[in-house]
Amino acid sequence: DIFDSDWYTSRSLIGGADIIVIKYSVNDKTSFQDLKDSYVPMIKKALNHCSVPVIISAVGARKNAVPCTCPLCTLDRRSCVTTSEGAQLAKEFGATYLELHTLNDFYIQKYFGGVTSSLTLTEKMPILKGEASHYDSDLHNLLFCCQCADVAFYSEDSSKVVEAHKVILCSVSHVFMLLFDVKSPADIHDPSILRTAQSLFVVEAGAGLPAPHGVPPCSVPIRVVVKDSVFCSCLSDILHFIYSGAFQWERLEEDIKKKLKDSEKTEHVLEKVKCILKAPGKVHLAYVG
């Protein structure tokens, strides 16, 4: 292991490399987190002193779902490392991102054969950087600028909280599917999802939001009252978490802790978020941190 040596030796080894391949198992989220926390900072520090191309290689087939590249998909988020998480790590390095079923001779030759052969022609492989994506910023513009919003959340005292988009909320939660009639109670076989929807929200059909002159009624956001006052006070942070792909759990936890300054209330809100993101028939999401 190059990091078994002292820092200067490790930096020298990295600087003398033709290419750096960082690999991890898609079915071991703990080791992926260890990689990010322990090794990635050291590699980044070493790369400040040299220019070596990096490949991020996700190895294995996800056990609990077909891989999905949608940042809002929650199907493979619980125990596996998602495509979006691996791609984000690659983006931080300006690296190439690969997903391999296994590191057998076929895949090594297919994906790394061209790389290794090119090293005989050039001293260094050029650093490959993906085009910058504006997906995250576009979603947050929709949220914070209230563009095309079709749902408005209110507290019980009728003061406006925030507007959002049903399609994005439904993409991460069966609770919102139930709330907005995308699914009926008969479609939901998990009673905890029904309880969560009923305890947190109530839709006030046709109440309180008359259509402005010249605006068709179908364009007026649906009014949803948030029945839990503590949850309601953190709703903007929770929506920010959802619009960021619903996987930056540590950041959400920290934001809510700072806002509430009460451990019991913080735990209460986080449990409600877990219930909202819960898949039917599954246990609550387990998050590190």
From TrEMBL:
SUPFAM superfamilies: P-loop containing nucleoside triphosphate hydrolases, POZ domain. GO terms for molecular function: GTP binding; GTPase activity. Keywords: Nucleotide-binding. The keyword Ribonucleoprotein does not apply. Residues 149-251 form the BTB domain. InterPro entries: BTB/POZ_dom, P-loop_NTPase, SKP1/BTB/POZ_sf, Small_GTPase. It holds the Pfam family Ras. This is BTB domain-containing protein.
